[in-house]
Amino acid sequence: MEQNIQQKLYGLDHLRAFAIVFVFFFHYFILSDGQPKWLPGVASFGWTGVDLFFVLSGFLISSELFAQIKQGQNISFKYFFLKRFFRIIPAFLATVGLYFYFPFFREKESLPPLWKVLTFTQNLGLNLEDFGTFSHAWSLCVEEHFYLILPLILILLQFTKLIKKPFWLIIAFFLFGFVIRIYSFNQLYLPKLEDESGFMYWYKYIYYPTYNRLDGLLVGVSIAGICQFLPIVWSKISKYKNLFFILSLGILAASYFLFEEPMTFNASVFGFPLLAIGYGFMVVGAISPSSFLYKWNSKVTTFIATLSYAIYLTHKGVIHMTHQLLAEFKIDNNLMLLICMTTCISFACLLHFTIEEPFMKLRIRIVNKK
After folding, report:
1. Domain of 334?
2. Domain count within the chain
């Protein structure tokens, strides 16, 4: 299975590269006063790139854990956490240092409390109006909660011998998502609508909390479960890779229209699972062996995918700095976008080669000793 995962990474690299470019365009769109005329049409839906990241994370992380279960191995939380720590924390702490010690790096005025940033609880009760700086780290909080909860649940299922029937739990979490979003919308968000900043409460109570955004991760886990434990079913499904791409585009198009008014009941309750399913079908198509994405080995998308985490952490700060440093020059909007893309990739390279790569090498040495 390890070999198969490596082969599948070609297809997933394309999606990861697409996701980070989509997110970059969205944040450039909301941060920049001057922008290309074509950008809003492309970037307005770019926030959903995060949902694609959720599906990819759910698939990759659970594939690793499911492979251990399939081989009859007990999951080691210590081993799993150690690998995640070296992958996530060093670059994250370096970025946090930039935000807290270099005000020029901040895309907005106020940072959240440091303890919330360091404990990955920033997304819970996040006041976007007052603490909007580094707000994009909310999605990393969701993923860190997932990295904590998933292995613990699987360890419990192994201990109780219920590991062969995990799908009921995935269904339960999906249903929980609907119930908690209905409650959050009716009981937490609606009473705040009369407030002048009422729309901010939609982000606080609906968009950011982990318990409302599990759908993409659960879809990724479901795909990994089918690949690992239902190989016959997966073999039949993977033959229809083109159909899955078509379904994906159709569902994402429906999501686009649904989220034209995101702060409605239907968008708040049903929109996120619709996005998750749409991107889930895209992932299924990308990992199907006969898919063109599966076979296409692109150095460009592999390069962007490799830098995606570093880009995600730093791009808002770098966009802000670039605009500030070049504010006196009258630069064409298209050229400024290109310059910002270049500075973001360059800064991400610096973070990757000075922080990420050395710590990943250290991880290999430490893990190999275990």
Report:
1. 2-369
2. 1
